[in-house]
Amino acid sequence: MEHLLTGTETSKEQILALIDLGKDLKANPAKYADALKGKSIVTIFEKQSLRTRVTFDIGINKLGGHAVYLDSQNGAIGERETVKDFAANISRWADCIVARVMSHNTITELAKYSSVPVINSLCDLYHPCQGLADFLTVAQHYDDVSKVKLAYVGDGNNVTHSLFIVGAILGAEVTAVCPLGSSPDAQLLKQAEELAQKSGGKVRVTNNIDDIKGYDIVYGDTWVSMGDETPLQAVKDRFMPYQINRELLDKTGIKHVLHCQPAHRELDITSEIVDDEKVSLIFDQAENRMHIQNAIMLTLMKGDF
Q: What is the Rg, in whole angstroms, of the alpha carbon atoms belonging to the chain?
């Protein structure tokens, strides 16, 4: 494995190794203070960000490395100069490329022409760093992630796809509960189903909240993805039955809540649940973005995959 583009490049053993490394990075930061000393990582952002930008920037610094932030003020990658030339130039200077982009095609082209590792920090189809951080968070509360039942509720999107992929590889059970017309991509669901068949896991899509009774974790996201200019109020009636609230937890028996944020309080999730320290793992999950990303960078840049 030379890059992290979709998550499908990884095996169960590799993901578990990343989770273990992420735990150690979190518990023993001083041990890794010089792990990336003398290394420079270019972080590319075509889309705005809070958690992705801050966790990579501070995370790289904690490892002794140097982060170079590139925004999209000069236009999308490939407009001012080709993606091929862009990748070839950065590869001569940097030791790794992290890219948060509009299109997955940009990620694949960067990886094709880059001579250093490329990490997909978000695109239209995948969010592998998020999915891996999510299962690091799960692993901190459940001894065997392959026995975990996780339900995603809301709009099927790139986060849903990555939850499917990582969960399927690990052998977990992941169900997406989405309103009609908002299901995840059918081809990516099929891909995850094939991965689940090999691992003994299970992935599925439903529109019925009752199908997740007895699950361990429920996971939420904004109802309108970044870049979609649809007002939240315009989709409120369709998505409100999928709101994460006390009634949903009581109805299903679910014990823990995840949300990749930004959370629109009193819409996709209630403040009562976000701030409930007994059930909400949301801010642990946000912190774990940094630890799993550091684990990914260390592993790729040292060639341990």
A: 19
What is the Cα 209 distance to its own chain's centre?
23
Of 141, 137, 130, 140, residue with least CA distance to 164: 130
Q: d(Cα 165, Cα 144) in Å, to the nearest integer?
A: 17
Active site residues: 100, 127, 130, 221, 260, 289
CA max distance for the chain: 56
Domain ranges of the chain: 3-127+289-302, 130-285
Given the candidates 3.40.50.1370, 3.40.50.2000, 1.10.3860.10, 3.30.420.240, the CATH classification of the domain at 3-127+289-302 is 3.40.50.1370
Q: Tell me the C-alpha distance between 174 and 202, whole Å.
A: 6
Q: pLDDT tens, 260-283?
A: 999 999 999 999 999 999 999 999
> Which pTM was predicted?
0.96
